[in-house]
Amino acid sequence: MADAVPHFEAKSWRSACSFFSLRNASGNPDGRNKQTTLGRAMPRRSLNLNWIRSFEASARLLSFTQAAQELALTQAAISQHVRLLEQELGEPLFLRLSKAVRLTDAGEAYLPVVRESLERLRAGTSDLFGAGREGSVRLRADPGFIDCWLAPRLQDFLGAYPDILLQVSVAIGGIDNDWSTADMEVRYESTQMGGVDATVLVGGTVFPVCHPSLSQALRQPCDLLHQRLLHVTGHRHGWSEWFHVAGAVLPDGARLLQADSGVTTLVMAEQGIGVALGHSALVLPLLQQGRLVRPFMPGLATPGMFHLITPSDHPLKRQARLFRNWLLAKGSHALEGEPGAGPSH
After folding, report:
1. Global pTM?
2. DSSP 171-198
3. Same domain assignment for residues 120 and 149
Protein backbone atom coordinates (compact mmCIF):
# COMPACT_ATOMS: atom_id res chain seq x y z
CA MET A 1 0.00 0.00 0.00
CA ALA A 2 1.23 3.43 -0.86
CA ASP A 3 -0.09 5.21 2.20
CA ALA A 4 2.11 5.53 5.26
CA VAL A 5 0.96 3.47 8.21
CA PRO A 6 0.69 5.58 11.38
CA HIS A 7 2.24 4.54 14.67
CA PHE A 8 0.04 2.14 16.61
CA GLU A 9 -0.75 3.02 20.20
CA ALA A 10 -1.38 0.37 22.82
CA LYS A 11 -4.63 2.02 23.83
CA SER A 12 -6.09 1.13 20.42
CA TRP A 13 -5.68 -2.58 21.13
CA ARG A 14 -7.22 -2.17 24.56
CA SER A 15 -10.17 -0.30 23.10
CA ALA A 16 -10.73 -3.04 20.54
CA CYS A 17 -10.67 -5.74 23.20
CA SER A 18 -12.94 -3.72 25.46
CA PHE A 19 -15.45 -3.10 22.68
CA PHE A 20 -15.79 -6.75 21.73
CA SER A 21 -15.88 -7.83 25.36
CA LEU A 22 -18.75 -5.43 26.06
CA ARG A 23 -20.64 -6.62 23.01
CA ASN A 24 -20.30 -10.19 24.18
CA ALA A 25 -21.37 -9.32 27.71
CA SER A 26 -24.54 -7.66 26.52
CA GLY A 27 -25.43 -10.14 23.77
CA ASN A 28 -24.35 -13.46 25.26
CA PRO A 29 -23.74 -13.41 29.04
CA ASP A 30 -22.18 -16.89 29.26
CA GLY A 31 -19.56 -16.04 26.62
CA ARG A 32 -19.75 -19.44 24.93
CA ASN A 33 -20.05 -20.43 21.27
CA LYS A 34 -20.32 -16.82 20.15
CA GLN A 35 -18.28 -15.16 17.39
CA THR A 36 -18.47 -11.67 18.89
CA THR A 37 -15.36 -11.99 21.09
CA LEU A 38 -11.88 -11.58 19.73
CA GLY A 39 -10.47 -12.94 22.99
CA ARG A 40 -12.06 -16.40 22.71
CA ALA A 41 -12.96 -17.37 19.17
CA MET A 42 -10.61 -15.38 16.96
CA PRO A 43 -7.24 -16.83 18.03
CA ARG A 44 -8.45 -20.23 16.75
CA ARG A 45 -9.25 -18.89 13.27
CA SER A 46 -7.17 -17.86 10.32
CA LEU A 47 -8.39 -14.65 8.72
CA ASN A 48 -8.04 -14.18 4.98
CA LEU A 49 -5.33 -11.61 4.32
CA ASN A 50 -7.19 -10.23 1.28
CA TRP A 51 -10.17 -9.44 3.51
CA ILE A 52 -7.87 -7.61 5.94
CA ARG A 53 -6.17 -5.58 3.20
CA SER A 54 -9.52 -4.63 1.68
CA PHE A 55 -10.83 -3.53 5.07
CA GLU A 56 -7.72 -1.45 5.87
CA ALA A 57 -7.75 0.38 2.53
CA SER A 58 -11.51 0.99 2.67
CA ALA A 59 -11.35 2.21 6.26
CA ARG A 60 -8.43 4.51 5.55
CA LEU A 61 -9.96 5.98 2.39
CA LEU A 62 -13.61 5.65 3.52
CA SER A 63 -14.40 4.48 0.01
CA PHE A 64 -14.77 1.01 -1.49
CA THR A 65 -14.18 2.48 -4.93
CA GLN A 66 -10.89 4.16 -4.03
CA ALA A 67 -9.77 1.06 -2.16
CA ALA A 68 -10.43 -0.99 -5.28
CA GLN A 69 -8.31 1.40 -7.36
CA GLU A 70 -5.44 1.25 -4.85
CA LEU A 71 -5.45 -2.55 -4.65
CA ALA A 72 -6.11 -3.11 -8.36
CA LEU A 73 -9.38 -4.93 -7.64
CA THR A 74 -12.99 -4.33 -8.57
CA GLN A 75 -15.34 -2.45 -6.27
CA ALA A 76 -17.45 -5.60 -6.06
CA ALA A 77 -14.44 -7.63 -4.87
CA ILE A 78 -13.64 -5.09 -2.14
CA SER A 79 -17.25 -5.07 -1.00
CA GLN A 80 -17.34 -8.86 -0.89
CA HIS A 81 -14.06 -9.07 1.08
CA VAL A 82 -15.36 -6.63 3.67
CA ARG A 83 -18.68 -8.44 3.94
CA LEU A 84 -16.97 -11.81 4.46
CA LEU A 85 -14.75 -10.28 7.16
CA GLU A 86 -17.78 -8.84 8.92
CA GLN A 87 -19.46 -12.23 8.82
CA GLU A 88 -16.36 -13.86 10.30
CA LEU A 89 -16.13 -11.30 13.10
CA GLY A 90 -19.84 -11.24 13.72
CA GLU A 91 -19.84 -7.43 13.71
CA PRO A 92 -20.55 -4.76 11.07
CA LEU A 93 -17.44 -2.69 10.42
CA PHE A 94 -19.01 -0.10 8.12
CA LEU A 95 -22.22 1.87 7.91
CA ARG A 96 -23.33 1.86 4.27
CA LEU A 97 -24.80 5.27 3.49
CA SER A 98 -26.36 6.36 0.22
CA LYS A 99 -23.18 7.92 -1.21
CA ALA A 100 -20.49 7.05 1.35
CA VAL A 101 -19.37 4.57 3.96
CA ARG A 102 -18.52 5.27 7.57
CA LEU A 103 -16.80 3.13 10.20
CA THR A 104 -18.85 1.69 13.02
CA ASP A 105 -17.50 1.72 16.56
CA ALA A 106 -16.21 -1.81 15.96
CA GLY A 107 -14.50 -0.68 12.75
CA GLU A 108 -12.89 2.30 14.50
CA ALA A 109 -11.52 0.02 17.22
CA TYR A 110 -10.34 -2.66 14.78
CA LEU A 111 -8.56 -0.38 12.27
CA PRO A 112 -5.43 0.45 14.36
CA VAL A 113 -5.02 -3.24 15.23
CA VAL A 114 -5.09 -4.15 11.54
CA ARG A 115 -2.71 -1.34 10.60
CA GLU A 116 -0.19 -2.40 13.21
CA SER A 117 -0.37 -6.03 12.11
CA LEU A 118 0.16 -5.18 8.44
CA GLU A 119 3.06 -2.88 9.25
CA ARG A 120 4.76 -5.56 11.34
CA LEU A 121 4.26 -8.05 8.51
CA ARG A 122 5.82 -5.63 6.02
CA ALA A 123 8.73 -4.79 8.32
CA GLY A 124 9.42 -8.43 9.16
CA THR A 125 9.32 -9.45 5.51
CA SER A 126 11.73 -6.65 4.63
CA ASP A 127 14.13 -7.60 7.43
CA LEU A 128 14.18 -11.28 6.50
CA PHE A 129 13.91 -11.16 2.73
CA GLY A 130 14.47 -7.55 1.68
CA ALA A 131 17.23 -6.08 -0.44
CA GLY A 132 19.34 -5.14 2.61
CA ARG A 133 19.28 -8.64 4.11
CA GLU A 134 22.42 -9.87 2.37
CA GLY A 135 24.36 -6.85 3.61
CA SER A 136 23.38 -7.29 7.27
CA VAL A 137 24.96 -9.24 10.11
CA ARG A 138 22.92 -10.24 13.17
CA LEU A 139 24.77 -10.81 16.44
CA ARG A 140 23.20 -12.09 19.66
CA ALA A 141 25.39 -11.68 22.74
CA ASP A 142 25.71 -11.47 26.50
CA PRO A 143 24.89 -7.89 27.65
CA GLY A 144 28.17 -7.55 29.54
CA PHE A 145 30.09 -8.55 26.44
CA ILE A 146 28.19 -5.99 24.35
CA ASP A 147 28.59 -3.10 26.77
CA CYS A 148 32.10 -3.67 28.05
CA TRP A 149 33.93 -5.50 25.26
CA LEU A 150 32.20 -5.00 21.91
CA ALA A 151 31.07 -1.37 22.13
CA PRO A 152 34.54 0.12 22.82
CA ARG A 153 35.95 -1.71 19.77
CA LEU A 154 33.03 -1.54 17.37
CA GLN A 155 33.94 1.73 15.64
CA ASP A 156 36.97 -0.03 14.17
CA PHE A 157 34.74 -2.51 12.34
CA LEU A 158 32.16 0.06 11.28
CA GLY A 159 34.89 2.26 9.87
CA ALA A 160 36.39 -0.61 7.88
CA TYR A 161 33.03 -1.90 6.60
CA PRO A 162 30.60 1.05 6.44
CA ASP A 163 28.21 -0.76 4.07
CA ILE A 164 27.53 -3.67 6.44
CA LEU A 165 24.40 -3.27 8.56
CA LEU A 166 25.06 -4.68 12.03
CA GLN A 167 22.13 -5.76 14.20
CA VAL A 168 22.95 -6.53 17.86
CA SER A 169 20.50 -8.14 20.27
CA VAL A 170 20.89 -9.13 23.92
CA ALA A 171 20.82 -12.73 25.14
CA ILE A 172 20.57 -13.40 28.87
CA GLY A 173 21.10 -16.91 30.19
CA GLY A 174 20.22 -20.22 28.62
CA ILE A 175 20.98 -21.50 25.16
CA ASP A 176 18.95 -20.27 22.21
CA ASN A 177 19.27 -22.51 19.16
CA ASP A 178 16.79 -20.50 17.10
CA TRP A 179 18.95 -19.06 14.32
CA SER A 180 16.12 -17.36 12.44
CA THR A 181 17.00 -14.04 14.08
CA ALA A 182 20.79 -14.34 14.46
CA ASP A 183 23.80 -15.29 12.33
CA MET A 184 26.06 -15.83 15.33
CA GLU A 185 26.09 -15.53 19.10
CA VAL A 186 28.60 -14.83 21.84
CA ARG A 187 27.82 -17.10 24.78
CA TYR A 188 29.25 -17.18 28.26
CA GLU A 189 30.73 -20.48 29.42
CA SER A 190 29.10 -22.44 26.58
CA THR A 191 31.33 -25.32 25.50
CA GLN A 192 29.39 -28.50 24.69
CA MET A 193 26.43 -28.05 22.36
CA GLY A 194 25.12 -29.94 19.39
CA GLY A 195 24.56 -28.48 15.97
CA VAL A 196 26.89 -25.51 16.42
CA ASP A 197 30.53 -24.57 15.97
CA ALA A 198 32.07 -23.00 19.09
CA THR A 199 35.32 -21.02 19.01
CA VAL A 200 37.03 -19.50 22.05
CA LEU A 201 36.77 -15.74 21.70
CA VAL A 202 37.91 -14.20 24.99
CA GLY A 203 39.65 -15.85 27.91
CA GLY A 204 41.27 -14.27 30.94
CA THR A 205 40.81 -14.20 34.69
CA VAL A 206 38.10 -13.27 37.17
CA PHE A 207 38.87 -11.17 40.26
CA PRO A 208 37.11 -8.86 42.76
CA VAL A 209 36.37 -5.27 41.73
CA CYS A 210 34.69 -2.53 43.71
CA HIS A 211 34.19 1.21 44.08
CA PRO A 212 37.38 3.01 45.22
CA SER A 213 35.74 4.01 48.50
CA LEU A 214 35.21 0.37 49.49
CA SER A 215 38.79 -0.67 48.78
CA GLN A 216 40.10 1.18 51.82
CA ALA A 217 38.48 -1.42 54.09
CA LEU A 218 39.83 -4.38 52.12
CA ARG A 219 43.31 -5.38 53.34
CA GLN A 220 43.06 -9.16 53.02
CA PRO A 221 40.59 -11.56 51.35
CA CYS A 222 38.70 -12.32 54.55
CA ASP A 223 37.72 -8.61 54.72
CA LEU A 224 35.41 -9.31 51.79
CA LEU A 225 33.16 -11.24 54.15
CA HIS A 226 32.09 -7.93 55.67
CA GLN A 227 30.93 -6.67 52.28
CA ARG A 228 28.02 -7.60 50.07
CA LEU A 229 29.27 -10.01 47.39
CA LEU A 230 27.68 -9.56 43.96
CA HIS A 231 27.20 -12.82 42.06
CA VAL A 232 25.90 -13.67 38.58
CA THR A 233 23.29 -16.42 38.72
CA GLY A 234 24.33 -19.56 36.85
CA HIS A 235 27.98 -18.64 36.31
CA ARG A 236 30.32 -21.54 36.92
CA HIS A 237 33.16 -19.38 38.25
CA GLY A 238 31.97 -17.75 41.45
CA TRP A 239 33.03 -16.53 44.85
CA SER A 240 33.70 -20.00 46.34
CA GLU A 241 36.26 -20.72 43.61
CA TRP A 242 37.91 -17.32 43.96
CA PHE A 243 38.24 -17.63 47.76
CA HIS A 244 39.85 -21.04 47.25
CA VAL A 245 42.44 -19.55 44.86
CA ALA A 246 43.06 -16.74 47.37
CA GLY A 247 43.74 -19.28 50.16
CA ALA A 248 40.51 -18.59 52.06
CA VAL A 249 37.08 -20.14 52.47
CA LEU A 250 33.69 -18.64 51.70
CA PRO A 251 31.54 -19.59 54.69
CA ASP A 252 27.87 -20.46 54.56
CA GLY A 253 25.68 -17.46 55.16
CA ALA A 254 27.93 -14.98 53.34
CA ARG A 255 26.06 -11.91 52.13
CA LEU A 256 25.35 -12.50 48.46
CA LEU A 257 23.34 -10.39 46.05
CA GLN A 258 22.55 -12.22 42.84
CA ALA A 259 21.82 -10.77 39.39
CA ASP A 260 21.17 -12.36 36.01
CA SER A 261 23.99 -10.62 34.11
CA GLY A 262 27.58 -9.62 34.75
CA VAL A 263 27.03 -6.07 33.56
CA THR A 264 24.39 -5.62 36.28
CA THR A 265 26.83 -6.62 39.02
CA LEU A 266 29.45 -4.22 37.61
CA VAL A 267 26.98 -1.34 37.64
CA MET A 268 26.10 -2.18 41.25
CA ALA A 269 29.79 -2.29 42.15
CA GLU A 270 30.26 1.16 40.58
CA GLN A 271 27.51 2.45 42.86
CA GLY A 272 29.26 1.06 45.96
CA ILE A 273 26.59 -1.55 46.62
CA GLY A 274 29.10 -4.35 46.97
CA VAL A 275 32.04 -6.20 45.45
CA ALA A 276 31.68 -7.94 42.09
CA LEU A 277 33.72 -10.56 40.30
CA GLY A 278 34.90 -8.92 37.09
CA HIS A 279 36.22 -10.62 33.98
CA SER A 280 39.58 -9.14 32.99
CA ALA A 281 38.48 -8.58 29.37
CA LEU A 282 35.38 -6.67 30.46
CA VAL A 283 36.52 -4.54 33.38
CA LEU A 284 39.81 -3.20 32.01
CA PRO A 285 38.24 0.06 30.70
CA LEU A 286 36.47 0.58 34.04
CA LEU A 287 39.74 0.09 35.91
CA GLN A 288 41.61 2.45 33.59
CA GLN A 289 38.96 5.13 34.10
CA GLY A 290 39.08 4.74 37.88
CA ARG A 291 35.42 3.81 38.10
CA LEU A 292 36.38 0.49 39.69
CA VAL A 293 39.50 -0.78 41.45
CA ARG A 294 40.96 -4.23 41.93
CA PRO A 295 41.66 -4.69 45.65
CA PHE A 296 43.44 -8.05 45.42
CA MET A 297 45.84 -9.62 42.95
CA PRO A 298 44.71 -13.28 42.97
CA GLY A 299 42.70 -14.06 39.86
CA LEU A 300 40.68 -17.12 38.95
CA ALA A 301 41.81 -18.41 35.56
CA THR A 302 38.88 -18.88 33.20
CA PRO A 303 40.18 -19.80 29.75
CA GLY A 304 37.60 -19.62 27.01
CA MET A 305 34.80 -18.02 29.02
CA PHE A 306 33.27 -16.28 25.99
CA HIS A 307 32.66 -18.42 22.92
CA LEU A 308 31.66 -17.35 19.43
CA ILE A 309 28.88 -19.68 18.30
CA THR A 310 27.65 -20.28 14.75
CA PRO A 311 25.17 -22.90 13.50
CA SER A 312 26.87 -25.86 11.84
CA ASP A 313 24.23 -26.27 9.14
CA HIS A 314 23.95 -22.58 8.15
CA PRO A 315 26.94 -21.38 6.09
CA LEU A 316 27.76 -17.77 6.90
CA LYS A 317 27.33 -15.22 4.14
CA ARG A 318 30.31 -13.09 3.20
CA GLN A 319 29.44 -10.15 5.48
CA ALA A 320 28.97 -12.45 8.48
CA ARG A 321 32.31 -14.14 7.78
CA LEU A 322 34.01 -10.74 7.74
CA PHE A 323 32.50 -9.85 11.12
CA ARG A 324 33.35 -13.25 12.58
CA ASN A 325 36.99 -12.93 11.50
CA TRP A 326 37.14 -9.42 12.93
CA LEU A 327 35.76 -10.61 16.28
CA LEU A 328 38.28 -13.44 16.50
CA ALA A 329 41.16 -11.11 15.61
CA LYS A 330 40.10 -8.64 18.30
CA GLY A 331 39.59 -11.45 20.78
CA SER A 332 43.11 -12.75 20.33
CA HIS A 333 44.48 -9.31 21.25
CA ALA A 334 41.89 -8.41 23.90
CA LEU A 335 44.30 -8.49 26.83
CA GLU A 336 47.52 -6.64 26.24
CA GLY A 337 48.26 -6.78 29.93
CA GLU A 338 46.68 -8.21 33.05
CA PRO A 339 45.15 -5.39 35.13
CA GLY A 340 46.92 -5.23 38.45
CA ALA A 341 45.74 -4.65 41.98
CA GLY A 342 45.81 -1.31 43.68
CA PRO A 343 49.19 -0.19 44.93
CA SER A 344 48.17 -0.33 48.58
CA HIS A 345 47.41 -4.04 48.56
Report:
1. 0.56
2. --SS-----SS-SEEEEES----SSEEE
3. no
